[in-house]
Amino acid sequence: MDQYRINSWEDxxxxxxxxxxxxxxxxxxxxxLGLAFEFYNSYAKTRGFSVxxxxxxxxDGKVREKAYVCSCEGYRLEKWNHMKNxxxxxxPETRCGCMSKLHVFFDAVIESWVVRDFCDEHNHDLVVPKxxxxxxxxxxxxxxxxxxxxxxxEVGISIPNIFGSxxxxxxxxxxxxxxxxxMHNQVAKQRRQLPDDLTSAMAYLEMLAARDRNxxxxxxxxxxxxxxxIFWCDGRCQLDYDLFGDVLxxxxxxxxxxxxxxxxxxxxxxxxxxxVVFGAAIVSNERKSTYVWLLKQxxxxxxxxxxxxxxxxxxxxxxxxxxxxxxxxxxxxxxWHLMRNAxxxxxxxxxxxxxxxxxxxxxxxxxxxxKWEEMVGFFGVxxxxxxxxxxxKRNMWATAHIRGKFFAxxxxxxxxxxxxxxxxxxxxxxHNLTEFVQHFQRCLSYMRHREDLADFKSSTGQPVxxxxxxxxxxxxATIYTRxxxxxxxxxxxxxxxxxxxxxxxxxxxxxxxxxxxxxxNMIWHVSFHGEQDEFKCSCMRMDSIGIPCSxxxxxxxxxxxxxxPKSLVLRRxxxxxxxxxxxxDDMGGLMEDSLAIxxxxxxxxxxxxxxNEGCLKGDLFNESRDALVNILSCIRAHSGDNNMMEGHAxxxxxxxxxxxxxxxxxxxxxxxxxxxxxxGHNIATxxxxxxxxxxxxxxxxxxxxxxxxxxxxxxxxxxxxxxxEWFEEEDEYLDFSRYYEQSGGETxxxxxxxxxxxxxxxxxxx
Length: 766
Fold this sequence. Notes:
By secondary structure, the protein is α+β, with helices and mostly antiparallel strands. It has 27 helices and 17 strands. The chain folds into five domains: 132 residues, no CATH class; 50 residues; 182 residues, Ribonuclease H-like superfamily/Ribonuclease H (Nucleotidyltransferase, domain 5, 2-Layer Sandwich), CATH 3.30.420; 108 residues, no CATH class; 107 residues, no CATH class.
């Protein structure tokens, strides 16, 4: 009798269905209903038909009899063939009154489900076994498949690529028991089971907070609980802000989410000159009150630390909020946005070129004022509203007025733009609030991985000395991170083109005059205060950037100083920037989920080896199968759960009979696009799907451009911006006659110029 008893899914796997007779089937008895269905479904797959659940007999609230039938049993209700509001072509009719079935009942004596009736006669053609996997009851995704799909989807892999990967693991596409559409349906089902988006996002943040006790998030709701904005930052963000939060950059131009809401990302630069994120927010508008709320939440999360300097794209609401919350911070406007606005407001390319030179040129204040008057007078724009407004804000954009204020090399918000370029590889426009937060955290994880790589490169090996100041160079190589050292070394190269032409000692300091070879009119003054062991230069680059300028380095070489003085070393640029900060070392500890993922990968590796080699011969297959079944039985016995798979089959197919015949009239739900979940169209015409398909998949090489700020701030020789194609460093004054000649003797340029478009509505015109 025991040879006909099926106690587990593994017993079904051992059955040779090709040699199974009707008499054998009628003698079977099952431990539960799920196994009865699983057996009949497996049998149907070998024959080439699909099955579904049918009627049940219930006694005292318990199922005592159950019928499983061929999916072609019965007939389609006529109402489905005469729908007046039908839009799509009706599905082919498959039900033809087939009588094939398996009928089981519960035998209380042996406490098993016994076969009462079995019919294997069909009145329709059967599908060849090769195509049986496409029938409805055979193409359901299993829990391992769903789990693997979810893990791959979490790292940004698209559904078609996941399907290809799973098919590759199975050997061929014909060995996979579901389709891409089934995967999309499973994803949609999971989304429908989630609570509302905001509640789900908060639940996800609560889950992160359980792992990271320092995680901070805050949600503001309006009347009737309507979402306004959400701000969050994890513990690592707070540690980074504590070290590198002296300079803060943010904008709200990124809107890649399902709701098209602005995303505000607070960022800065770390000791490797890499972009580092301090926090993020999703807001419903860009009003002043919104930015005030965000900056206050940032202060709360960062224990009240106020940044020294802030750089933005110039949005008026941002500027007002910064003055209110960070009254003592230096606010700088993005140079790139100013250049764009100069083009769109004045419409003269030569003016934009000269305005750029004035903005980025390292002039004395008096020289700047003179050049400004000459420029606006030459172009006749002194009365333009934008010109008047810009002149009133000159202490927020002109290098002449900003010199000496620390901005860590920031001139533009290009780091924010580059961060957006990386973020869009993780976040798609179809993602809701919860998915955005999840994928944003994944983007942070990748950026921190890159920081770990930079830490490793800085801590291993020593760069080869290449300058004439090798002792100074070697000293800096042991202090700075590798990337900052490369910037420092470029300063040393510049220092070799300088000479000290005069020195003078006063009661408080020594003053050195530094000049460039063959350019005696270019002079800088370096002072040395012996008591404080402090060097200062008239170019103020040390104060603005935190790296010694070439003029100071020339003086160090002149007085034979072999080691970089401590007063010239800013800790935020050094290898030891994070040393002694509690929290960094344990932030990388493995969480429970991380261990589970690692273990899953390890077991998957060995299981794949067994799968590839164990299927080559029949005896190897049987031996491998039996060994795996025994291992699984031991695992379940150890965990105390002997019914994991028994209940699984019932769960997996519990809704197969939902489309069976019923006389109850139901109202069909309005159809929605399965991609974006919106009405009025389907996935074939979905514009959001087409937009995402045009977006390239994640590419590590492309993501390397996250640090978009150029290194032009280290250039010391022109005392102006490094892009020398815009101007010549030896120019003492702006040569207006040169621009006049280039324009053909006209002050108005006749050249066509693409201004890049007018300012967006979201961005206040400067």
